[in-house]
Amino acid sequence: RITEVAEKPAEPKSTKASMGFFIFNKSALVKYLTEDEAEREYLETRCCLKKPPIYIGDKRIFYMGNRQPRMFTKDKIVWVYQHKKDVQVRYVTVKTIYSVQIRYKDRTEGMILVPDSGVASYVEEALQREMPWVVVGYDDDLNRMYNNNMQQFLSLRYNEQMVQAGSPTESAPV
Asked: Which of 138, 130, 140 has its CA nearest to residue 161?
């Protein structure tokens, strides 16, 4: 039983010592543990593409392009599609920017910049191989469903996976 604690006393009462007390803020501890886990996973990733640098781990995708590295959590991704944006100056296209858009169940999003549509297609295919549950490709109906009826979007995602696997979809839980 501890009855008293003296930190670094000039004249100790005994030879017994405490090795330390640590009080952590739970969110800070979770953040640091998650970062440490991500760092360990990064060391074991598979290179998907060298330019832009994309590495795929068991739980995350690491994108090292642009100004800062990004990390995408695989089990939260529900939709992946190509995006092309023309940059115009005085109605003349001066540059085209290609990307792969990544959308999460919580309606947040991220993006991977790529040099052209061929690389965008390659990245889409690689992500679909790694995460067969994601919806791949864009159309306006998917966008409306994603924004207005997430439950329906998720059931589409699940049913697509089941159809690809050759399983019946009637009994598929959502």
From this structure: 130
Taking the model in full, what pTM does it have? 0.67
pLDDT tens digits along 94-104:
999 999 999 99
Backbone angles phi, psi at 160, to 5 degrees: -60, -45
**Which of 115, 126, 151, 120 minimizes the C-alpha distance to 138?**
120
As given in the structure block, the two tokens for residue 32 are 């640091």
Helix 150-165, helix 140-148: angle, nearest 10:
120
**Three-class DSSP labels, 2-60:** CCCCCCCCCCCCCCCCCCCCCCCCHHHHHHHHHHHHHHHHHHCCEEEECCCCEEECCCE
Residue 5: strand pairing partners? none
Separation between Cα atoms, residue 113 and residue 77, nearest integer Å: 17
Question: Is the CB of residue 121 less than 8 Å from the CB of residue 139?
Answer: no
